């Protein structure tokens, strides 16, 4: 287990209060694509539900908030990994100390599998 920061714990508390039910929505079957096989995508999906969905929405989009629609993220893994590790503009939290490279790679496979054309 990695150390979870106090900040993250606070976010989880907030998420619990606003309804953790949205994180347990039934999985929607997804097709594998070039960015990862189904097992990798599924691992990314679990991490996403735990660490990202309370801000970015259970399905990559959270209308009415400042979070960008991740389905429209460009096909640029380097940009994704850098943003997730370092955070962005003080609004997107940095995950470099919390998630391993493999977990971030799995997240990318999941996000890429949902990309809108
Ligand atoms: C505390 C809320 C919060 C959490 C948790 C969060 N994000 Fe974000 N994220 C944001 C916000 C806000 C932005 C927009 C930052 C900006 O552009 O100013 C953002 C931006 C991003 C971007 C940049 C998109 C781009 O076009 O460059 C990516 C990628 C991203 N988030 C992925 C993730 C992933 C993956 C996770 C889970 C590990 C995650 N986020 C967790 C709030 C959050």
Topology:
Layout (H helix, E strand, L loop, with lengths): L5 H14 L18 H14 L1 H4 L20 H10 L14 H13 L4
Helix pairs in contact: 2-5, 4-5
The protein binds heme C.
The site of heme C has 21 residues, from helix 3 and helix 4.
List its traits:
117 residues, mainly alpha, Cytochrome Bc1 Complex, Chain D, domain 2, globular
Question: In a few lines, what is going on in this structure?
Answer:
Residues 1-29 form the signal peptide. The chain is 47% helix and 0% strand.
Description:
- The chain has 117 residues and is an all-alpha fold.
- It has helices at 6-19, 38-51, 53-56, 77-86, 101-113.
- α2 (38-51) crosses α5 (101-113) and α4 crosses α5 (101-113).
- The longest helix is centred in the first third of the chain and has 14 residues, at 6-19.
- The protein is globular, with a radius of gyration of 14 Å.
- Residues 19-32 have low confidence and may be disordered.
- Bound molecules: heme C.
- Heme C (HEC) binds next to α3 and α4.
Distance between the termini: 37 Å
Largest sheet: none
CATH hierarchy class name of the domain at 35-113: Mainly Alpha
Please report the total strand number as a whole number. 0
The H-level CATH homologous superfamily of the domain at 35-113, spelled out, is Cytochrome c-like domain
| Share in β-strands | under 5%
**Which small compounds were modeled alongside the protein?**
heme C
CATH topology (fold) name of the domain at 35-113: Cytochrome Bc1 Complex, Chain D, domain 2
What structural class do you assign from the helix and strand content?
Answer: mainly alpha
Percent in helix: 40-55%
- Tally of individual helices: 5
Mean pLDDT: 82
**Global geometry:** globular
CATH architecture of the domain at 35-113: Orthogonal Bundle
Organism: Bradyrhizobium elkanii
Protein name: Mono/diheme cytochrome c family protein
Keywords: Heme, Iron, Metal-binding, Signal
Pfam family, one: Cytochrome_CBB3
């Amino acid at each position: 287990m990695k150390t979870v920061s106090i900040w993250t714990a606070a976010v989880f508390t907030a998420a619990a209060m606003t309804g953790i039910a949205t994180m347990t929505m039934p999985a929607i079957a997804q097709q594998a694509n070039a960015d990862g096989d189904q097992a990798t995508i599924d691992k990314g999906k679990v991490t996403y539900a735990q660490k990202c969905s309370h801000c970015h929405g259970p399905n990559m989009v959270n209308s009415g908030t400042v979070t960008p629609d991740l389905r429209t993220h460009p096909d640029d893994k380097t940009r994704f990994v850098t943003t997730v590790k370092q955070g962005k503009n003080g609004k997107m939290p940095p995950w470099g100390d919390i998630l391993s490279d493999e977990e971030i790679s799995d997240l990318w496979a999941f996000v890429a599998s949902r990309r809108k054309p």
